[in-house]
Structure formats: structure tokens, C-alpha cells
Amino acid sequence: MILTLALTAPAMAIAPRLSWAGHSLPPEFRRQLEHDANAPIFGNPDGDATLIEFFDYNCQFCRAMMPVVDAVLGADPGLRMVMREWPVFGEGSVFAARAALASRKQGRYADFHRALMSQKPRAERASVLRVARSMGLDTQQLQRDMGGPEIAQHIQQSNALAEAMGLVGTPTFIAGSDSRFGAISSTELAELVAASRGN
């Protein structure tokens, strides 16, 4: 179900509104989505708007959205973006997500994330470690750090949040009480963020 929808989502697909869209999220739920200390942050950490992305390194639409996300981040200095690693495409995706999260220990998450999103091969153990080596990451340390409890916790939290909201696949973007699923334009992504500022 998740895999089929994520694989077949057409370019420019828009998600059905989530069941809670148009209603205020419960405060605890919003805190878990927007302020999980164990989730990487892009953009302005003190921004006045928060965008959350649930993604997988083996999702072709997630890869296509990387330059769109970067364009929106570059154009909006008040945007804070929460990255939710949600590996739904098998063992290679899980390995990539764990490696990306572990790269935080070496201060390279943002660079490694973009490099993994930019690679052409499927994300598997060998291709992920090849990208890591090409960036000068200590791959032995990376693999040791992948076993940290905070890594498993982040992925478990992503799964729990996705299930609670009934997410259908990757990429899913959430801002305020609205969401979009699939590859969308920079204009629509910016409009999603702008609308959330009124929530």
C-alpha cells in the first residue's frame, strides 16, 4: 500500500488532505512533529514557519524534490524544515536512513543527505558507503554510530507518526494542519508554508 502509492505517485500529485486537515493538531502531536530534538533541521532553526518532510532515499519523487526543497529554503529565511527519515522501500532504504542519521556525529548530515538524494544508483549498503567515502566520511565510525539508540528511535518515531496520520507514502510535506504528497512545484510548496503561518 505505502510502497505502491509512493512508487506510482505522478509528478505534481497532490495528497488528499489528511484526516486532521483544517483542524488544529493536538498540541502534543504538533510538538512531536515540529520539535523532536532527535530530528535533523534544515533552514532557520528559529524560523517562524515549520515544514516537515517524510522521505526515503529510494523514492524517485523524493529525489526529484530535493532541488525544489532547496529553492524554497533559499527563498524563505524564516523557514525551519524538519527532516523525517521514513524508510519504506526495504533494507537499502533502512541502511541509508541509519547512515544519514549517523552522519550527524561527524557534522555532515546536510551534505550526506543531498549526496544520497543526488545519486543515480539505488541506495543500498555498497552505494551508501561509496557516497560516504567520496565525501571523506569515516565509514567505520559511521557504521558504529548507526547502531546508536537515537537512530532507531528516530525511525520508530517516523513510523509511529506516519501511521497515526495515515500517511500514504513519500514524499509527504506537512505545514500547519495541511499536507501534500508527491512531487509538487516550488510555488505550491511555498504556498503550503505561507498558509501555515496563519495557523
From TrEMBL:
Gene3D superfamilies listed in its UniProt record: Glutaredoxin (3.40.30.10)
Ranges of residues in domain Thioredoxin: 3-198
Keyword set, alphabetical order: Disulfide bond, Oxidoreductase, Redox-active center, Signal
Database matches in Pfam families: DSBA (PF01323)
InterPro entries: DSBA-like_thioredoxin_dom, Thioredoxin-like_sf, Thioredoxin_domain
Keyword Disulfide bond found: yes
Keyword Iron part of the UniProt annotation: no
Protein name: DsbA family protein
